[in-house]
Amino acid sequence: MLGLDAAGKTTILYRFKLGEIVTTIPTIGFNVETVQYRNITFTVWDIGGQGKIRPLWKHYFIGTHALIYVIDCNDKDRIPTAKAELETLLKEELLSDAVLLIYANKQDIKGAMTAQELTNVLELNKLTDRTWYVQGTCGKNGDGLYEGLDWLAERVSKTKSN
Protein backbone atom coordinates (compact mmCIF):
# COMPACT_ATOMS: atom_id res chain seq x y z
CA MET A 1 0.00 0.00 0.00
CA LEU A 2 1.58 3.20 -1.22
CA GLY A 3 0.76 6.88 -1.40
CA LEU A 4 2.10 10.22 -0.29
CA ASP A 5 2.66 10.93 3.38
CA ALA A 6 -0.52 11.70 5.36
CA ALA A 7 -2.77 10.05 2.74
CA GLY A 8 -4.19 7.64 5.35
CA LYS A 9 -2.32 4.40 4.58
CA THR A 10 -1.60 3.43 8.18
CA THR A 11 -5.12 4.32 9.32
CA ILE A 12 -6.52 2.09 6.55
CA LEU A 13 -4.14 -0.79 7.34
CA TYR A 14 -5.14 -0.89 10.99
CA ARG A 15 -8.83 -0.42 10.16
CA PHE A 16 -8.46 -3.69 8.19
CA LYS A 17 -6.38 -5.46 10.80
CA LEU A 18 -8.08 -4.34 14.02
CA GLY A 19 -11.42 -2.98 12.83
CA GLU A 20 -10.85 0.24 14.71
CA ILE A 21 -9.20 3.61 14.38
CA VAL A 22 -5.73 3.92 15.83
CA THR A 23 -3.60 6.95 16.56
CA THR A 24 -0.84 7.09 13.98
CA ILE A 25 2.43 8.90 13.51
CA PRO A 26 4.26 9.36 10.20
CA THR A 27 5.58 5.99 9.03
CA ILE A 28 9.35 5.92 8.80
CA GLY A 29 10.09 2.63 7.07
CA PHE A 30 7.06 0.35 6.94
CA ASN A 31 4.29 -1.47 8.76
CA VAL A 32 3.36 -4.95 7.59
CA GLU A 33 0.28 -6.92 8.59
CA THR A 34 -1.55 -10.01 7.42
CA VAL A 35 -5.22 -9.39 6.71
CA GLN A 36 -7.77 -12.19 6.15
CA TYR A 37 -10.66 -11.26 3.88
CA ARG A 38 -13.06 -13.45 1.86
CA ASN A 39 -10.88 -16.56 2.20
CA ILE A 40 -7.86 -14.66 0.93
CA THR A 41 -4.84 -13.79 3.01
CA PHE A 42 -3.36 -10.44 2.08
CA THR A 43 0.06 -9.41 3.29
CA VAL A 44 -0.21 -5.64 3.34
CA TRP A 45 2.93 -3.52 3.36
CA ASP A 46 2.24 0.06 4.41
CA ILE A 47 5.34 1.93 3.30
CA GLY A 48 6.11 5.48 4.39
CA GLY A 49 5.26 8.15 1.85
CA GLN A 50 7.59 11.03 2.69
CA GLY A 51 9.62 12.35 -0.24
CA LYS A 52 12.89 10.97 1.16
CA ILE A 53 11.41 7.48 1.50
CA ARG A 54 9.70 7.19 -1.91
CA PRO A 55 12.88 6.13 -3.76
CA LEU A 56 12.95 3.07 -1.47
CA TRP A 57 9.47 1.90 -2.53
CA LYS A 58 10.89 -0.23 -5.35
CA HIS A 59 12.63 -2.51 -2.85
CA TYR A 60 9.22 -3.86 -1.78
CA PHE A 61 7.84 -4.76 -5.24
CA ILE A 62 8.97 -8.38 -5.67
CA GLY A 63 5.99 -10.73 -5.53
CA THR A 64 3.41 -7.93 -5.58
CA HIS A 65 0.04 -9.04 -6.99
CA ALA A 66 -1.83 -5.83 -6.25
CA LEU A 67 -1.04 -2.20 -5.59
CA ILE A 68 -3.28 -0.20 -3.29
CA TYR A 69 -2.50 3.47 -3.87
CA VAL A 70 -4.01 5.86 -1.33
CA ILE A 71 -4.65 9.50 -2.21
CA ASP A 72 -5.78 12.23 0.18
CA CYS A 73 -8.56 13.77 -1.90
CA ASN A 74 -8.76 16.78 0.37
CA ASP A 75 -5.11 17.74 -0.25
CA LYS A 76 -5.71 19.11 -3.74
CA ASP A 77 -2.35 20.91 -3.84
CA ARG A 78 -0.57 17.54 -3.76
CA ILE A 79 -2.75 15.67 -6.25
CA PRO A 80 -0.23 16.46 -9.06
CA THR A 81 2.56 14.94 -6.94
CA ALA A 82 0.42 11.88 -6.18
CA LYS A 83 -0.27 11.54 -9.91
CA ALA A 84 3.42 11.81 -10.80
CA GLU A 85 4.37 9.18 -8.21
CA LEU A 86 1.63 6.86 -9.48
CA GLU A 87 2.85 7.28 -13.06
CA THR A 88 6.36 6.35 -11.90
CA LEU A 89 5.02 3.25 -10.14
CA LEU A 90 3.09 2.14 -13.21
CA LYS A 91 6.35 2.10 -15.22
CA GLU A 92 7.99 -0.33 -12.79
CA GLU A 93 8.61 -3.71 -14.41
CA LEU A 94 8.08 -5.58 -11.13
CA LEU A 95 4.57 -4.10 -10.89
CA SER A 96 3.59 -4.74 -14.51
CA ASP A 97 1.21 -7.59 -13.59
CA ALA A 98 -0.19 -5.99 -10.43
CA VAL A 99 -3.81 -4.86 -10.42
CA LEU A 100 -4.33 -1.30 -9.20
CA LEU A 101 -6.79 -0.24 -6.53
CA ILE A 102 -6.84 3.47 -5.78
CA TYR A 103 -8.42 4.58 -2.55
CA ALA A 104 -9.75 8.13 -3.03
CA ASN A 105 -9.45 8.76 0.70
CA LYS A 106 -10.85 11.34 3.11
CA GLN A 107 -14.26 11.52 1.44
CA ASP A 108 -15.70 12.56 4.81
CA ILE A 109 -14.12 16.01 4.45
CA LYS A 110 -16.31 18.64 2.82
CA GLY A 111 -14.86 19.69 -0.51
CA ALA A 112 -12.74 16.57 -1.03
CA MET A 113 -12.34 15.51 -4.65
CA THR A 114 -14.76 12.69 -5.53
CA ALA A 115 -13.61 9.32 -6.87
CA GLN A 116 -14.85 10.29 -10.34
CA GLU A 117 -13.06 13.65 -10.23
CA LEU A 118 -9.88 11.87 -9.15
CA THR A 119 -10.26 9.34 -11.98
CA ASN A 120 -10.46 12.23 -14.44
CA VAL A 121 -7.50 14.15 -12.97
CA LEU A 122 -5.33 11.03 -12.94
CA GLU A 123 -6.40 10.33 -16.54
CA LEU A 124 -6.94 6.69 -15.69
CA ASN A 125 -9.08 6.08 -18.75
CA LYS A 126 -5.83 6.26 -20.73
CA LEU A 127 -4.53 3.32 -18.68
CA THR A 128 -5.55 0.46 -20.97
CA ASP A 129 -2.82 -2.09 -20.14
CA ARG A 130 -3.76 -2.62 -16.49
CA THR A 131 -6.81 -3.56 -14.46
CA TRP A 132 -7.68 -0.65 -12.17
CA TYR A 133 -10.44 0.63 -9.93
CA VAL A 134 -10.99 3.81 -7.90
CA GLN A 135 -12.97 3.56 -4.67
CA GLY A 136 -14.02 6.55 -2.57
CA THR A 137 -13.08 5.90 1.06
CA CYS A 138 -12.87 7.25 4.55
CA GLY A 139 -10.14 5.42 6.43
CA LYS A 140 -11.31 6.74 9.79
CA ASN A 141 -14.84 5.32 9.67
CA GLY A 142 -14.19 2.53 7.15
CA ASP A 143 -16.56 3.79 4.44
CA GLY A 144 -15.67 2.26 1.07
CA LEU A 145 -12.70 0.25 2.29
CA TYR A 146 -14.35 -3.15 2.05
CA GLU A 147 -15.96 -2.36 -1.30
CA GLY A 148 -12.43 -1.80 -2.58
CA LEU A 149 -11.22 -5.02 -0.97
CA ASP A 150 -14.13 -6.90 -2.56
CA TRP A 151 -12.98 -5.69 -5.98
CA LEU A 152 -9.36 -6.52 -5.16
CA ALA A 153 -10.13 -9.99 -3.77
CA GLU A 154 -12.07 -10.86 -6.92
CA ARG A 155 -9.24 -9.70 -9.20
CA VAL A 156 -6.43 -11.30 -7.21
CA SER A 157 -8.23 -14.65 -6.97
CA LYS A 158 -8.79 -14.60 -10.76
CA THR A 159 -5.12 -13.78 -11.35
CA LYS A 160 -3.91 -16.56 -9.05
CA SER A 161 -6.22 -19.13 -10.66
CA ASN A 162 -4.88 -18.37 -14.16
Describe this structure in words.
This protein has 162 residues and is α/β, with parallel strands linked by helices. The chain has a single domain, classed as Rossmann fold, CATH 3.40.50.300. The chain has 4 helices and 5 strands. The strands form 2 sheets. A 3-stranded parallel beta sheet has the order 3-4-5, sandwiched between helices. Strand 4, helix 3 and strand 5 form a beta-alpha-beta unit. It is globular, with a radius of gyration of 14 Å. The chain starts with 8 loop residues before the first helix and ends with a helix.
Can I get a quick summary?
Helices cover 29% and strands 22% of the residues. It is of the alpha/beta class and 162 residues long.
Structure keywords:
162 residues, P-loop_NTPase, Rossmann fold, three-stranded parallel beta sheet, metal-binding, magnesium, GTP-binding, alpha/beta
Q: Look at the structure and name the CATH superfamily.
A: P-loop containing nucleotide triphosphate hydrolases
Instruction: Say how many strands there are.
Output: 5
Percent range for β-strand residues: 15-25%
Biggest sheet architecture? 3 strands, parallel
Overall geometric form:
globular
Number of helices: 4
Which parts are unreliable, with pLDDT below 50 for 5 consecutive residues or more? none
Number of domains: 1
Q: Identify the CATH class.
A: Alpha Beta
Order of helices and strands: HEEEHEHEH
Under CATH, the topology can be stated as Rossmann fold
Overall mean pLDDT stands at 94
Distance between the termini: 24 Å
